[in-house]
């Protein structure tokens, strides 16, 4: 998000600016770190010099006001696409929980308050984020070309760069640890010299919300609502800070893939990982979900509005009817213990839906 320097450049050359249209974007929250993925080029290719700012145009032409809300996900029957879905499932029973930040630790601009009751019917959700292998099967079956692939470039964290110097199209103003890289896409998350070799079981990244929705249509799935995501991540426990409890590293044990060391110059990898980790590398929460803290941000079906919780219905909330920024949840491997706390279960953020980056993926629920 714009103004969140841990994970968010101001904008990329030829790319949609992250956080465009978000009410809290800008200088007012410039000190609030790590709020999602930076913008990926959804508007087409086009290089610019380092530090340039290009205006974004989403696929289909000029934006016209606020985007309409997606149709409500079906609640009866099981919509089936033609494709398979190899991700293990976790059953989440229906019930009631308190949604929001019970510890008062969130950034005010993120809208984690007020804590409010939510009731949901039972559903089934992916136990892990969608993997590279699963997304590869979808792409092979459908010929889907992601928005970053069509644009020809996307955002990469500088320490993970795998590209020739001439493929670095821009350094993001204000966040020089993010660079816009020609040839970065889901098959080459850190640049064209990299690959997915040995990473089939890592979460797919460099996908926009539209790419995630295309996968869902193929698999007969849908993206979770924000309420479903938080309820499932809580695992039946009330008001825990993290899916496993209130301590980040109970007994000195790392329970998630986040940054250790000095951000953004040194990651000591005390949790074993610098970038993405294999899905399920850390213990599951109460309902059997892995990776709901750290690893990669995950797209949700809702539009982001920091004021939504004050008017959210109790039963099955779906978010605002319209919006320009989509909800993301869970934090990523770039969240830092002393610099960012958006890997808490209540933490919420958002990004423009045609953005992609090396630290944002998704999981799905039954349609």
Task: Describe what you observe in this structure.
This protein has 367 residues and is mainly beta. The chain has a domain of 232 residues: paralog of FGE (formylglycine-generating enzyme). The chain is 10% helix and 17% strand. The protein has four helices and 17 strands. The protein has a four-stranded mixed β-sheet with strand order 15-14-12-16, with helices on one face. Strand 10 and strand 11 form a beta hairpin. It is globular. It starts with 66 loop residues before the first strand and ends with a strand. About 20% of the residues have low confidence.
CATH topology of the domain at 87-151 and 201-367: paralog of FGE (formylglycine-generating enzyme)
By CATH's scheme, which homologous superfamily of the domain at 87-151 and 201-367 applies?
paralog of FGE (formylglycine-generating enzyme)
Order of helices and strands: EEEEEHHEEEHEHEEEEEEEE
Could you give the count of β-strands?
17
Condensed summary:
The chain is mainly β. The chain has a domain at about 85-150 and about 200-365: Alpha-Beta Complex (paralog of FGE (formylglycine-generating enzyme)). It contains four helices and 17 strands.
Distinctive features:
single chain; 367 residues; mainly beta; paralog of FGE (formylglycine-generating enzyme); four-stranded mixed sheet; three-stranded antiparallel sheet; 4 helices; 17 strands; 10% helix
List the helices and strands and how they pair.
Elements: E1 67-68, E2 89-92, E3 95-99, E4 116-120, E5 123-126, H1 132-142, H2 147-151, E6 153-157, E7 168-171, E8 178-182, H3 209-219, E9 221-222, H4 226-234, E10 261-262, E11 266-267, E12 297-303, E13 322-323, E14 326-329, E15 348-351, E16 360-361, E17 365-366
Parallel strand pairs: 12-16
Antiparallel strand pairs: 1-13, 2-5, 3-4, 6-8, 7-8, 9-17, 10-11, 12-14, 14-15
């Amino acid at each position: 998000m714009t103004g969140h320097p841990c994970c968010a450049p101001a904008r990329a050359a030829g790319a949609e600016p992250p956080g465009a249209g978000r009410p809290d974007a800008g200088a007012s929250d410039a000190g609030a770190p790590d709020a999602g993925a930076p913008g990926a080029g959804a508007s087409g290719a086009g290089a610019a010099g380092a530090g340039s700012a290009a205006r974004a145009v989403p696929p289909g032409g000029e934006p016209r006001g606020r985007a309409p809300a997606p149709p409500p996900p079906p609640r009866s029957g099981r919509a089936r696409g033609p494709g398979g879905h190899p991700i293990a499932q976790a059953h989440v029973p229906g019930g009631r929980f308190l949604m929001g930040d019970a510890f008062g630790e969130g950034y005010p601009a993120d809208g984690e308050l007020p804590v409010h009751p939510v009731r949901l019917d039972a559903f089934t959700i992916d136990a892990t984020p969608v993997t590279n292998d699963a997304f590869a099967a979808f792409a092979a079956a459908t010929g889907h070309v992601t928005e970053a692939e069509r644009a020809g470039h996307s955002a990469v964290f500088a320490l993970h760069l795998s590209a020739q110097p001439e493929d670095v199209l821009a350094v993001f103003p204000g966040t020089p640890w993010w660079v816009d890289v020609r040839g970065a896409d889901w098959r080459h998350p850190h640049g064209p010299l990299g690959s997915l070799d040995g990473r089939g079981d890592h979460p797919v990244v460099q996908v926009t919300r539209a790419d995630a929705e295309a996968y869902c249509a193929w698999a007969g799935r849908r993206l979770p609502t924000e309420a479903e995501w938080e309820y499932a991540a809580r695992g039946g426990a009330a008001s825990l800070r993290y899916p496993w409890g209130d301590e980040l590293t109970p007994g000195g044990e790392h329970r998630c893939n986040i940054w250790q060391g000095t951000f953004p110059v040194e990651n000591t990898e005390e949790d074993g990982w610098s970038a993405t980790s294999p899905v399920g590398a850390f213990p599951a929460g109460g309902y059997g979900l892995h990776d709901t803290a750290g690893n990669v941000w995950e797209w949700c079906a809702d539009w982001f509005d920091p004021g939504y919780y004050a008017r959210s219905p109790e039963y099955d909330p779906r978010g605002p009817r319209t919006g320009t920024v989509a909800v993301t949840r869970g934090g990523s491997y770039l969240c830092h213990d002393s610099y960012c706390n958006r890997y808490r279960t209540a933490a919420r953020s958002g990004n423009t839906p045609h953005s992609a980056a090396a630290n944002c993926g998704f999981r799905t629920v039954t349609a």
